[in-house]
Amino acid sequence: MSSTATSPAPEQAQPLLSLRGLEKRFSLSGDFLEQLKFKGGKLVREQEHVHAINGVDLDIQRGEALCVVGESGCGKSTVARTVMGLITPTAGEIRYDGERIDDRTTKELLPYRRRMQMIFQNPYASLNPRMTIQQTLEEPIRLHHPDWSPQRVKDQVAEVMTSVGIAPDWGARYGHEFSGGQRQRIAIARALAVDPEFIVADEPISALDVSIQAQVLNLLMEAQQQRNLTYLFITHDLAVVEHFGTRVAVMYLGRVCEVAPTATLFATPRHPYTQALMSAIPRLEDDRPQHIRLQGEVPTPVNLPSGCVFHGRCPHANERCRVEVPTLIATDEGGQVACHGVEEGRI
Amino acid sequence: MTTPTSPTASRWERLRDSYLLYSFKRDLIAQASLLVFIVLVAGAVLAPWLAPMNPYDLAQIDILASELPPFWVDGSDPAYVMGTDAQGRDLLSTILYGARVSLIIGFGAVALQAALGVCFGLLAGYLGGRVDAFLMRLADIQLSFSTLMVAIVVGALFKAIFGGATFSAYAVPLLVLIIGLAEWPQYARTVRASVLAEKGKEYVDAARVMGLSSRRIMFRHILPNTLSPIFVISTVQVANAIISEAALSFLGLGMPETQPSLGSLIKSGFDYIQSGSWWITLIPGLVLVVLVLVINLLGDWLRDVLNPRLYKG
Predict the structure, then answer these.
(1) Do A117 and B225 touch (CB under 8 A)?
(2) Read out DSSP for A150-189?
(3) Is B109:B175 a contact under the CB 8 Å cutoff?
(4) By three-state DSSP, how is residue B224 classified?
(5) Separation between Cα atoms, residue A293 and residue A281, nearest integer Å
(6) Interface list for A 29-48 with B (CB within 8 A)
(7) Cβ separation A126–B207 shorter than 8 A
(8) N-term to C-term CA, chain B
(9) Which UniProt keywords apply (chain B) (predicted)?
(10) Any CB–CB contact under 8 A between A82 and chain B?
(11) Which of A125, A143, A194 sits opposite B212 (nearest CB)?
């Protein structure tokens, strides 16, 4: 176990985190007795699932900030939680530094917990109301470094508190004594306390005031430079993506439709959904192309459409799109896109 | 059920205490209840020093002084302020010792209920799934039998198998065990409900991401956030346990008359109420009513103070 935690340095090409065919279904049907139904005089077992994510392939390289964008309910947060082991995937695999981590027990995951941490959306709920800041920050350090002396633990807490801009002598206070921005800084400090190399941030600024958002975002970027961090950054704010992301993954209905370097994606979006998404960003310039209006609604993730999940609303959809599920293919610009139209050169 | 008290925590605890104190100062009923409760508990705890005689010591009991009325009735003996019972025991001393037995059983049974109920509730709420279904069905089954019925059956069986002498010797632990085992679902259900509410909060996810064990998350993170309802039920349950014990004793399945609780005192006096010795039943009965009433009033006050809708720490 310990040998896997300190595996030799991987080749340059190996991604830090890679997801392959990741799927997660949530049952809607309750327990076994509730699933039994009478249909045409027969007792049948019926199960309905929400397909939160279905078949996500993603690679995250060391040192980058991969932003995942998409509208509400497209499975962004589920991807983040699955990566962190808060949710067990229904199918597919998660590899961290080449080692498979999705099938490990809590105990076996412990060495990875030190290397990957998470920042949550709601800073009002992510701090235990009955623990002081000092206790909150000491806990992960004590857990992962049981051999450290109390003084060394205190020094480490003081160091992370200073680095996020919270005075170390505020440690005796409770979470509710701080403002939302300060709480989120403390939550970031908790994630940084164990010196991780990879951080999953699940909409870390969407619960904050706009004036505070920039501060917290800059804090995250500073931490990335100083500590050489890799981010998986979940957001629905495209302005943040442009500012923060090295690469962007666009999700729709539980699938990745396009992955590309940030500048490329904003300049030349290839997937019809990405194009519509980009055209929806409010801009000051006047000469931009017409706003693309998508027809219809996002289909329910309970009964997924066949073929490409986007075909019902795509202006370029043809028969193949209705039948065959597109896979990610490399584009000339260095990104990947899952679209038959792009593959065939129609778009 | 102990709150972690570290030097850093005490400051907040003081803050919380000050809110408790604030509302306490404004509530006359709570103050009066607490005063009466303290007097009764102090009397019970200090019984060996306060009581004029030891009702367990046969040498001190004078059978000729039986059924003497309390001091304000004609024919009383100034040595026995509250009169004596049918065996010639000083009623005041017997009540003090009896309240002691009642309180020990009440608090002991509640401690057992709380320990079982909190553990089962945490497990059911946090682990969910089959563990939850199993424990909650167990709780439903337990609740479908009334406490008294279970206690009567177990007590009667124990008495029949081991004989009255053994029963008398082990009456206190046995009653604690019976009442404690019969009422744990009250705690389990409340704790489970609170755990389900807390489990969805992000600080629990943060603790899981940290890699903490389920046990540590349950007891160090979730349990401290569910303490308010636990405190409130505890007060009600202490009163309930005392009443249950009194009812069992009244039915002859509780404390033996040689070491009476309030319930068995009421029972022993009940036989003489027709012959005019009303005080043997009435005075311990009043003490029992007052004791249970003040505990319930304190519980009501605590429930209002700790109500998360009015005040959430």
Answers:
(1) no
(2) HHHHHHHHHHHHHHTT--GGGTTSBGGGS-HHHHHHHHHH
(3) yes
(4) helix
(5) 12
(6) 31
(7) no
(8) 18
(9) Cell membrane, Membrane, Transmembrane, Transmembrane helix, Transport
(10) no
(11) A143
Pair of tokens at residue A209? 């005031």
* Among the partner residues A120, A131, A135, nearest to B205 by beta-carbon distance: A120
**What's the pTM?**
0.81
Distance from CA of B293 to the nearest CA of A (A): 32
Q: Tell me if B38 sits within 8 A of B30, measured CB to CB.
A: no
Cα dihedral B225→B228→B231→B235 (10° resolution): -160
Query: What is d(CA A109, CA A91) in angstroms, rounded to the nearest whole number?
Result: 18
Across the interface, do B206 and A120 touch by the CB < 8 Å criterion? Answer: yes
Q: Please give, rounded to a whole number of angstroms, the shortest distance from the CA of A267 to a CA of chain B.
A: 37
Q: Which helix (H) or strand (E) holds A250?
A: strand A247-252
Q: Where are the domains of chain B?
A: 25-306
Q: Residue B181, class by beta-carbon neighbours within 10 Å (0-12 exposed, 13-18 middle, 19+ buried)?
A: middle
Classify domain B25-306 at the CATH topology level: MetI-like fold (1.10.3720)
The CA–CA distances, whole Å, from A220 to A239, B149, B164 equal 16, 63, 74
Contact of B174 with B155, CB cutoff 8 Å: yes
Chain B interface test: which of A33, A104, A114, A128 (most B C-beta within 10 Å): A128
Handedness of CA A167, A173, A175, A176 (dihedral sign): negative
Residues near A84 by beta carbon (within 8 Å), at least 6 away in sequence: A116, A118, A200, B209
Place of tokens 């050169």: A345
Three-state DSSP state, A278: helix
Separation of alpha carbons B61 and B63, rounded Å: 6
For residues A302 and A28, the answer to whether their CB atoms sit within 8 Å is yes
pLDDT tens for each residue of chain B, 313 residues long: 334 444 444 556 666 666 777 888 888 899 999 999 999 999 889 888 888 888 887 777 777 777 777 877 777 777 777 778 777 788 888 889 989 989 999 999 999 999 999 999 999 999 988 899 999 999 999 888 888 888 888 888 888 888 878 888 888 898 899 888 888 999 999 999 999 999 989 999 999 999 899 999 999 999 988 888 898 889 889 988 999 888 888 888 888 878 888 888 888 888 888 887 888 888 889 999 999 999 999 988 888 877 655 544 4
Cross-chain residue pair A132–B206, CB shorter than 8 Å: no
Contact list in A for residue B211 (CB cut-off 8 A) is: 106, 109-110, 113-114, 140, 143-144
Instruction: Give the H or E element holding residue A35.
Output: helix A32-35
Contact A309/A70 with Cβ under 8 angstroms? no
End-to-end CA distance of chain A: 49
What whole-number distance in Å separates Cα of residue A130 and Cα of residue B225?
7
Q: How far apart are the C-alpha atoms of A123 and A181, rounded to whole Å?
A: 8
Count of alpha carbons within 13 angstroms of residue B70, beta-carbon side: 12
